């Protein structure tokens, strides 16, 4: 376990520093975009997310998932590069050194946890007993806190390692293994190319799920834009949501509850002044798919019910259980002329799995808030 025992040239401080910089970029991106996604789904009282630009959430969430996936080869490479450090001797050289070493534990544990749970969520695989979004959110804070401590502790070392000043590098006591020339196995350049190629392949085969027109390159994602009923993926089917009987019921009516409540049958809804808009569904799992929706403007229904312009409303599904059976719509979205209670998709009646008889579709909004199988709109 002495440093001489690790003969690979890749246990090298410059390699570790370069990987560290890239990981800082990808984890920083995933953190910021993750916070955006969290506060879009759970906005504090003082915050009204804008409903424009239409593509904003598609962009931030696509970046979130892509930066997380690209972190996988980077993190594995980094852990390989630095693992001889585990056997560093003496294990601690004072308080600052001890603090720096201990901060690496939540950093590594948190980073691995975030990547594993994020990928499990994309695969809709929940072997763990906790609720994904809440845990993923809180562990993000722990991980980013540990990352900031780590960057603060290492910034001087990284500067010296990647800078042009060779003298500065020579002064470093921060050696991972024997000095340069020594070592065997893969060269540093070969390693860099391999890690870069892995990151590149992951980007190309997953980013197409949110970049318009690149759907055909999506080889690694479990759901692909363009594939599914009416050319659109489905996350929760009507059967899974337990709405097969209620959604198909001919006595269906949409209730609008406000100062002047009223209700409409599906025929009446279709006969109202309908408009057609092109908007994406943007799932938190990273896929986005454009579609053409036809329906009544939510704002028109709210006006008719006498709901004031500054009011917040809630849309409610026929679904009886499930975390996404209702969603809150604040004024920027409720009053946006592109926000519809849609009854048609691509010119046809909505498929049962896409929310027949009626669903919400709004611009710049996470998929989890695009509630399907609507039966009530309530002023809060
Ligand atoms: N009632 C209800 N609506 C829902 C959901 C749900 O589970 N229940 N899932 C949401 C999620 S996570 C997404 S991504 C979109 C997907 O819409 P689609 O299945 O029509 O593509 O529906 C949303 N609407
Ligand atoms: Mo979703």
Chart the SSEs and their pairings.
Layout lengths: L12 H29 L14 H27 L12 H28 L9 H31 L3 H5 L17 H20 L30 H4 L2 H5 L4 E5 L4 E4 H6 L2 E9 L5 E10 H7 L8 E5 L8 E4 L1 H4 L5 E6 L2 E2 L9 E3 L12 E6 L1
Parallel strand pairs: 1-10
Antiparallel strand pairs: 1-2, 3-4, 4-7, 5-6, 5-10, 7-8, 7-9
Helix pairs in contact: 1-2, 1-4, 2-3, 2-6, 3-4
Short description:
With 380 residues, the chain is of the alpha+beta class.
Tell me what the structure shows:
The protein has 380 residues and is an alpha+beta fold. The chain folds into two domains: 215 residues, Up-down Bundle (Fumarate Reductase Cytochrome B subunit); 150 residues, Sulfite Oxidase, Chain A, domain 2. It is 44% helix and 14% strand. The chain has eleven helices and ten strands. Helix 1 packs antiparallel against helix 2. The longest helix has 31 residues. The termini are far apart. The structure holds the ligand Nc1nc2c(c(=O)[nH]1)N[C@H]1C(S)=C(S)[C@@H](COP(=O)(O)O)O[C@H]1N2 and molybdenum atom. The site of molybdenum atom (MO) has 6 residues, from loops. Ligand MTE binds next to loops.
